[in-house]
Design brief:
The complex is a heterodimer of chains A (300) and B (296). Chain A is mostly helical. Chain A contains ten helices and no strands. With 296 residues, chain B is mainly alpha-helical. Chain B has two domains: 59 residues, no CATH class; 222 residues, MetI-like (MetI-like fold, Orthogonal Bundle), CATH 1.10.3720.10. The radius of gyration of chain B is 24 Å and the shape is globular. Classes of the chains: A mainly alpha (300), B mainly alpha (296). At the A-B interface, helix 4, helix 5, helix 8 and helix 10 of A face helix 1, helix 7, helix 8, helix 11 and helix 12 of B.
Chain lengths: 300, 296
């Protein structure tokens, strides 16, 4: 007989009265426990900080992020310019804050695209017969076979290099990952009794998806969404770095790194700070994702 | 199959007539029509797709408008730097990640484990190209140890060749090692707690032998598929890292062609990379089948 593993101390709360509930129910009930999860809290703090700085930059930055001032060019980091200044004398901290705006925009828009594409493809694939499922999944495999950055370059090269296209491209690249997870969960839910029962009393498909499927898939989707933010920010930086993402004068982190490379011997700080901002943001989303995964899946 | 369909229709969605692009703005109408007939542009899209697939299978990817050479030739000439960076990086990844992952699993929850997983966490959150920039900053700008870019073919000078590709290869290797180290660690730890490991110890097999013969072998099975994915992502990573170190490989070719709207080349490179990726996955499946008798 297989011995059941004892429940680890830190997930005792997940095994309460209702010990077989997974997914969103677990997430809701354990919400008050989130205080005790270091990774989750750390991630949350970092992300709030980044969001705060980026939103602040709509109204206030220490200096104008676009105004050139030749007299203050290449100033090293100091009290008045914490991150230093660039080749046109623009304050790097201000530019990094505006860059945060762009990074968050990319994260939101591309995640929304990936999520909706994934939901549509995943539900169609999961709810329909084997034949349709097979075709959909092969198409997704095809999309998945392209390394993300290559596919994004292909899309951007055809529709023109600009930030909106980059966002769309990054979103499309991630559809297969969402679609596959949603499909797998839909298929396993399809045969559960409550779904069959609901079907037998005549629930229509949209109501079924809204009431039964989405709440159950929700928890694992939140994890996917969070990690997708990290991916989107890194991809956008990569695309902007090779000049296919954000166009000047907008300072995204990738673009700042690209521009820094010409002045590396004179102003190394230009190459360091945007990268740190980016790494910190990605760290925040990764930690948050890890935390969420722990809550939504008691097996971890 | 799906790859070819997708890439064909993406590139056909392009606004503008390729014939007009090739001949320039002031070409007369009859010349454009002639070229259109030559390139099969007057045929419907579905027919064009089959023409294109036929050519693709013969290894003919079309004609570069920018280089005035067949696309295949252009791509092959840019292949050596990309291949050498990818291979060296895969080698480094193997050398770094397997020992560290195994050490980390053997000492799990000790300080060495925390050190290794902590460092690998850093590798997960920074992009490879930024690591490349930082390496440039330290090794070329500050210490003047290595060249700040460019590529020397292996046939010219082996040492210079190694010097020119070690930094890009290393920065990519660190990123993928950190993914692999975590994978190896968790896979080994999972297998340590399995029943079969306890059985083997119970039978009187020595700890060392249980670890090396039983646990390691089983733990490597899921690691292999991740390894395949990492090889593919290293290949994709070279595209960006090449422009950090200004190395004239496939990534630079792709970027130049995008900027010059030399679409046959872009399409060609994209397809090559997709095909190589599929090939890597296929090889990994084969290896998987060879070492795991359960899925044969």
């Amino acid at each position: 007989m297989k011995k059941k593993k004892p429940c680890p101390e830190k997930f005792k709360h997940c095994y309460g009265k209702n010990k077989w509930s997974f997914s969103s129910l677990t997430l809701q009930r354990s919400r008050f426990r989130t205080r005790h999860h270091a990774s989750f809290i750390g991630g949350l703090i970092i992300i709030f900080l980044v969001i705060f700085l980026s939103i602040l930059s709509f109204w206030y930055t220490p200096y104008d992020a676009y105004k050139m001032n030749i007299r203050s060019r290449f100033l090293p980091p100091s009290v008045s310019h914490p991150f230093g200044t660039d080749e046109y004398g623009r304050d790097l901290l201000s530019r990094c804050m505006v860059g945060g705006q762009i990074a968050l925009q990319v994260g939101i828009i591309s995640t929304v695209i990936a999520l909706f594409g994934g939901l549509v493809v995943g539900f169609i694939s999961g709810m329909s017969n084997r034949f349709v499922d097979e075709i959909m999944m092969r198409l997704m495999d095809g999309l998945f076979a392209f390394p993300a950055i290559v596919f994004a370059i292909a899309i951007v090269s055809v529709f023109g290099a600009d930030i909106v296209n980059a966002m769309i491209a990054i979103g499309i690249v991630r559809i297969p990952i969402f679609a596959r997870q949603i499909r797998n969960e839909t298929i396993s839910l399809k045969h559960r009794f409550f779904v069959i029962a609901s079907k037998s009393i005549g629930t229509r498909l949209p109501a079924m998806i809204w009431k039964h499927f989405l709440p159950h898939i929700g928890a694992s989707l939140t994890v996917l969404v969070t990690t997708n933010f990290a991916f989107a920010i890194l991809s956008e930086a990569g695309l902007s770095y090779i000049g296919l993402g954000t166009q000047p004068p907008f300072p995204s982190w990738g673009r700042l790194l690209m521009e820094s490379q010409n002045y590396m011997d004179r102003a190394p700080w230009l190459a360091v700070f945007p990268g740190i901002m980016m790494a910190l943001t990605v760290l925040g989303f990764t930690l948050l994702g890890n935390g969420l995964r722990d809550f939504s899946d008691p097996r971890y | 199959m799906a790859v070819s369909l997708l890439s064909f229709f993406v590139f056909n969605a392009l606004p503008g007539n390729p014939a007009e692009v090739i001949l320039g703005l002031d070409a007369d109408q009859s010349a454009i029509e002639n070229l259109e007939r030559e390139l099969n542009l007057d045929k419907p899209v579905v027919l064009r797709y089959f023409f294109w697939i036929g050519n693709l299978l013969k290894g003919n990817l079309g004609y570069s408008t920018g280089y005035k050479k067949p696309v295949t030739q252009v791509i092959i000439s840019s292949l050596p730097p990309t291949i050498s960076i990818t291979l060296l990086s895969v080698l480094l990844t193997t050398v770094i990640s397997f020992p560290l992952g195994i050490i980390s699993a053997r000492k799990h929850n000790k300080w060495l484990d925390y050190l290794i997983t902590g460092i690998s966490q850093i590798g997960l959150i920074i992009p490879g190209f930024w690591l490349g920039i930082l390496f440039l900053l330290v090794f070329s700008v500050r210490l003047h140890l290595l060249p700040s870019g460019g590529y020397v073919p292996m046939t010219v000078d082996v040492v210079k060749w190694l010097k020119s590709i070690i930094l890009p290869a290393f920065s990519l290797a660190i990123i993928s090692s950190s993914v692999l180290i975590r994978m190896i660690r968790s896979s080994i730890i999972e297998n340590m707690n399995e029943d079969y490991a306890r059985t083997a110890t119970g039978k009187g097999v020595s700890q060392r032998r249980v670890f090396n013969k039983h646990i390691l072998k089983n733990a490597m099975i899921p690691v292999l598929s991740i390894f395949g994915l990492q090889v593919a992502s290293i290949l994709a990573g070279t595209i960006i890292i090449e422009s950090v170190f200004s190395i004239p490989g496939m990534g630079r070719l792709l970027l130049y062609s995008v900027q010059r709207r030399d679409l046959p080349v872009v399409q060609g490179v994209v397809i090559w990379i997709a095909v190589i990726t599929i090939l890597i996955n296929f090889i990994m499946d084969m290896v998987h089948m060879a070492i795991d008798p359960r899925i044969r």
